[in-house]
Give the backbone structure.
Amino acid sequence: MANNWIIRYGSYRMLGEFEGLEEELSRGDFVILQTDRGTETGQILCKSDEKSKKSLSGAIVGKIIRKMSANDHAKSREIKTEETLLIKTCSEFANRRGVRLTMVDAEKLFGGERIIFYYLAEGRIDFRELVKDLAREFHTRIEMRQIGVRDEAKLLADLGDCGRPVCCNTHLVEMPQVSMRMAKMQKATMDPNKISGRCGRLKCCLRYEQDVYDLYQKDLPEPGTIVTTEKGRGKVLVQEILSRKILVEFEDGRRLPVPVSDLLDSKE
């Protein structure tokens, strides 16, 4: 009986559920897929079940045509080599048309149904004539997609400061919202070079633990609050969120860390 599978596909490393085949497949296998974009390649991550589908849209996005053969792999490598020329050609045509953009990547589908060009630009641009030029040159459907710097990292970045592949190019389905408030709450260094990812924006990993910080902080009195403990009364100076403690300056001048469980009452 055929199984449905969760598969990563496309330059954007999208995730989707695909209808399977009768033949035996397993994690890591490369397959040829039919998607709403056309015929393309993908890699199997796991069998589809309720747990694995929670982070997806829920709809089946296509079907598996076959497991990739040696010839399929050879063709896929040829396409990747060709994509470098596609980027160069698009840049040349854009310069001739006076279209101001920076090419980031090009994606040619395995079946040749379309070519997607990813670019950076300041504001919206009119690329209608450029698309006509590219369609005449390559005889296929052309799609121009404007992206941001985070998307550029998703397409091109390799390793992060942690030494592992960047999150946006591996397991992240959507880019999380990250703020400077998260960095301050987690007491991360404020050095931009150390809290910025390959995209130049705040690191996505600052978001991973934020729910725990928010949950724990609710139980801690704010700095400046007067609290009563078994050791006396004092003023809260600092919150130690993960250890669930506060630094208290007592009336006699002592400064001691106090677990939140030792507080008797508090007031502003």
